[in-house]
Amino acid sequence: MIKNYFKIAFRNFGRHKLFTMINIVGLSIGISAALVIYVIVNYDFTFDKNHRDSDKIYRVVTEYSFSGNVGYNGGVTGPLAGAVKAEVTGVKDVVPFFTNGGMNVFIANNTNVPTRFKDHDNIVLADGRYFTLLDYNWLAGSAKTALNEPYQVVLTSDQAKIYFPKLSYSQMLGKTVTYDTIKTTVTGIIQTPQENTDFNFHDFISYSTGLANPALKDNLQLTEWGSTTSASVLFVKLADNASAANVEKQLNVLLKKHNPPKKEDAGNTQVFHLQPLSDLHFNKEYNNFDGGHTASKTTLYGLLVIAAFLLLLGCINFVNLTTAQASQRAKEIGIRKTMGSTRRQLITQFLSETFLVTIFAVIIALVAAPSILKLFADFTPKGITVDYLHHGNILLFMLALIVIVSILSGFYPALVLSGYKPVDVFKNQAHSGTNKTRNAFLRKSLTTVQFIIAQFFIMATLLVSKQIYYALHKDLGFKKDAIINITIPYKNMNPGTKQVFKNKLAAMPQIELMSIGGAPPSSGNTNSTEMTYKDGKKEIKTDVQQKYGDENYIKVYKIKLLAGRNIHQSDSGKAFIINKTYAKILGFKNPADAVGKILDFDNHKNEIVGVTADFYQKSLHSAIQPLVILIPTNKWGTRTFHIALKPQTTNGGEWKKAINDMGKTWKELYPDDDFDYSFYDKNIEKFYESEQHTSTLLTWATGLSIFISCLGLLGLAMYTTNLRTKEIGVRKVLGASVAQIVTLLSTELILLILLAFVLVTPLAWYAMNKWMESFADRTSISWWIFVASGAGMLLAALFTLSFQTVKAAVANPVNSLRSE
Predict the structure, then answer these.
(1) How far apart are CA 178 and CA 107, in angstroms?
(2) Where in the cell is it found (predicted)?
(3) Residue 518 burial by CB count (10 A; 0-12/13-18/19+): exposed, middle or buried?
(4) The pairing of beta strand 123-126 with beta strand 182-190
(5) What's the whole-model pTM score?
(6) Beta-carbon contacts of residue 636 (< 8 Å; ≥ 6 apart)
(7) Would you kindly state where each structural domain of the chain is located, as residue ranges?
(8) Tens of pLDDT along 682-730?
(9) How many CB atoms lie within 10 A of CB 245?
(10) Mean pLDDT value of segment 583-610
(11) CA 20 to 30 Å from 493, out of 78, 239, 485, 723?
């Protein structure tokens, strides 16, 4: 019986090759998209799911409110861990650790010069409690003793093979690894985690080393309740019957006890929260560790919606074309029923045909998925791969997809086809249900849904592209082109070396102007403090951002000075310039009125000597904040060189030569550090990487949805013209023109596209407004976005229809009427 079903299915495919191909292509595109998106989404949703009692593991994080501005920090104060262990109930394990980055690692070899690994990240100070919190497989050493003493280190297997490539894991025990100047002994090797994890540390130095080493001990700040760093991390595992809310309450009572609020900090708050382990990978406010990869659940759910839409489009094509072809199989169904076939057997027959089409589509999707994933390699995490052999869940997903798509696409057509009455069939009345009945209504509804989805994607793509263009081309209040940023390594900040570097750069003819300071005008870094203004009647406290630079800082970036003068080196610690927004907050409508006023800052009185025009300190997602530009008072504010290049000549090449010369000079002065530079306009573009990735995905989704929709439209047009072949022949004999026949055949489908446009426009407008709310400064949602989307879809549809309608309109009527 089953063999017979498939034999009939293949015969039917052979008779309707083009329609079968359209169905397979439409479904394969939808299934390919679903598979690739599943791989991406599944990757992010499987982080740190393998640990025991993961639902009881929390990270303690800190939330600040400072002059009305809220800040978030994934770290805690140094002494909190000890206090929690001693005073908080309901906590089973207290696990502090301290992250380190940028350490040079030295491994002794057979020469006098040890092997050096520069600027290694993912190094952490931890103890045995870390390995009770998370699950690791030990290859050598013991979790109970490996980190009990100072100057011990545990390595992951991958890192151990980098340091000691020729030794076995047991032979590595007792070897020396030096971190900068800290000598440690290898006491354990753990298996590098194979599962997706945010805990990507590969060198675990014993926590007691931080207590024994003076330099590290200063970083730990174990007695500083008022200081928080994201490097100081604290995890807790709750007891079985403990409440997260109750533990969180105890943490904040503990904070008030050891760090009571000061009178001068009135209005400012510090609060501890418990962040579930499951939230670690998705929370961009607190991030994870050392700027590791975090995912957006909104984006992931959006991807799932796109996959569902594309899959739905392929299924709609199948339903439309199969029900449209129903009349062509009417006699087959009538004969089968007359010969004794039950409706259940007929439904099984048609579902088996759908199953075969889906199988073919899935095979195409499995072959295409790795190549499709490579197209998005620039903005997908490196760990994402399509590996069918080692990821059985992908095959399970595809099996589930086969079943779902087969039922979704085939069940309704099977009901329609199996429902024909033999009496109607043999009276040649099978065509009665093809145009005006509920079957035709369903086809029209599904076609409308197709074009609603396609036009929504077009509108969304146009708006996202418009906002990105607006952000990249808007006047941000400073110059961003032809400026290079170079940052001095923090471990080699010798003033004499830096001065030599500055002098050599100044001698290069390609450099127009140079400034030394901190972060550029717009950056991801934020440095702020509270400043107070007293005018004799009132006191205004404001959280103010700080930018450090010398007198050339505003000249390099061409920041406009509205009033007063520029800062000079002699202003260090005594005066600064502010932006227009801060002047308004202080109550000065005229910027010139702010000049000469005094602000209390860092226990000093500082004079406002100038007011600049506003400029964006971050991306357009954030509003302009009150700001001061001041002469740096320490070496940390003078690490960055801001270099404005002269315009290139017609032949070009000057910038390339300048960069090569800078690199040579750098290697002479900083031989152990790589020469890293960046063009500032490229850094600005990175602010909108997420939006650019969204635009790319939407562009692909738009193209695929239009292609699938037009593919289905072509199939319907072919069916309609075949059904009305004799009518077209009669009309031509009676004098109808080609244009009239094309209009006749196209009108109904064009009206469906226009209906889709009317329905989708308010929905798209609402969705666009919600997306744009994340931008403090945004472009307008122009009327032309909707008009262009509708017109573009209409043109694509007309172009698709023209292949079949024109062909039918110019056909010789003699051929169509010969059988009469």
Answers:
(1) 7
(2) Cell membrane
(3) buried
(4) unpaired
(5) 0.80
(6) 490, 518
(7) 1-45+296-434, 54-279, 451-462+688-820, 483-686
(8) 888 888 887 888 888 888 888 888 888 888 787 777 777 777 777 777 8
(9) 8
(10) 90
(11) 78
